[in-house]
Design goal:
Elements (H helix, E strand, L loop, with lengths): L2 H10 L6 H4 L1 H4 L3 H6 L2 E6 L19 E5 L2 E10 L3 E9 L4 E12 L29 E9 L2 E4 L5 E8 L7 E11 L2 E15 L7 E4 L19 H16 L4 E4 L10 E4 L5 E4 L1 H12 L4 E4 L14 E4 L5 E3 L7 H22 L5 E3 L8 H14 L6 E3 L5 H4 L5 E5 H6 L1 H9 L3 E5 L17 H14 L3 E4 L15 E2 L10 E3 L5 E4 L2 E4 L1 H20 L3 H11 L10 H16 L2
Helix pairs in contact: 7-8, 12-13, 12-14, 13-14, 13-15, 14-15
Length: about 575
Amino acid sequence: MPKQLFLATLLSSGLALTASAVDVKSSRRPSDVVEREALGVVRVDVHERLYPDRWPRPAEPGPISVPRGVPVTLQFAVRAKAKGAAQLSLTGNVSGKPRLHWLQSVHVEGNTQGSLKNRPGGAVPKGWMDHLVRAAPFDTLEVLVESNRMPMDPGRTHGVVLEITVPRDAKPGTHEGALRVTLGNDEAVAPFTYRVHGTALPDPLPIHSVHWLWAQPFNLTNGKIPEWWSERHWQLLETAGKQLRRFGDDTVYTPLVNYRQPLIQITRREDGTFAFDYSRFDRWGKLFLGLGFRYLSGHHVINLMHVHMGGTFVIDEATGKKEPLLKDVKDRAAWLAFLPSFYDSLHAHLKEKGWLGNYLQCQYDEPRDVGLYKRLTALARKHLPGVPTIDAINSARQDVFSPLVDMQVFNLIGLNRYQKVAAQRNAKGKGVWLYHCTSPYPPHPNRHIDCYLTESRLYPWLCHKLGANGFLFWGANIYRGADEYKTSIGPFPNGSQDPGHPPGDSWFYYRSPEGLRPSIRIVSFREGLIDYALLTMLAERDPDTVEKLVAKVAPSIRRFERDPVTYHQARAAILEALDKP
């Protein structure tokens, strides 16, 4: 339907359109004009950071290109003069299942200042602010709350995220619709357009992804904390799994024999041998594999006996009492002597369940001790045959560490520096993954709350550029006692937020009474995963075009596009090329 006819149809239906909803030029007006309207709404780019105290620039006109089988995600800014609960609804030619969300704000009390040194209001290293979105302190709209009703405060900017999942059999073509916002007697409408292409996204995606899920009940809800492994705990885990899978993860970080209430319960028999109860582990595997995850990734075995990983406890068969496995948690030799028994049992159970192809074993994160890593690898290869190991390796001793791991996870600077190592691994069919955490620092990209949202979309592009087929991040939901809505600096294990981790570095999901909610950052990251899949498809037919597109988006790991329009244009170009017979 032509735009003029579509808008005329809306007018004839009795809807009151604000000037900002229909006129691109008038929508580029100063915020004081917005504030004079009773209710204003405008579409903004999905990668535009929204702030309650600022009115954003509107999105560039034109349709958003999307393949079949994925969500098209749109963002809107709303402002009103009155307080109340706004009703959100859709009109028009929408093909697919829609989901409406309003955006809840979070507080950023300090900018990114580096690793282990972030403080509220702390000094930012020289030149870094040129690469960050805004100087702290500030509030930003970050958390997606699924609902068709949105609380409104007068004179403040609010945000709406619309997600429309396009069916895999959808008919290609242009679709037009509008977001309608109603507050009391006032209504405002913002139109949108998206174009469905003939290409369908592959399933599964050609890139793996994991944001480590921390399964403790207090990391899953800010409502009433349930007992470990109660039905409510399992419900919250299922909610978390659905959210992680919805935003592209196919690997779930899986506890093992750690915690007082472990996933795999150990009994020490009277003769000193061990029995392992896998009933909870089986329920975990059935849950996450049933949600579409490909891999269960076991927690790092070198840390399982440590307090920060919950410790390892056993039930003494003679007394029925629960006690620590080790008399001294620093007794590494005793722990290494225990591992073969556990590994032999785990391997037999995985084989019985048919899950050997669905399990990965983390050993030692960012190892420095070569001798210890060699010993761990030897134990895994002997007692977990056929199970790939996966670890972040950022040591300069690539010649030593790289041959010892099946799926090597590089940091950004390391993967860029050791391209020869990555190429050799890819040629042998060995895994190459990418990760980041508190680093890298500006001018390199990151995904902190004070980074541009396009940097979240960029990371899968960097995976493609640098030859990685997997992505790993350490913190989906690790709060350590913080209220993630009131503070963004991530606590250290001892609870310190002064200093602490950079804003948002410890979580990409936010707790609610019902479970985890996604962030706008993970929305942007999912757009990058879609781009990666499309780039991989096109590379099989036209690698030269793919190379040019990637070079335009990310000439290097220090020079890359932040303008959302570049990403939309690249997506459209890829789909146009794939649509050709």
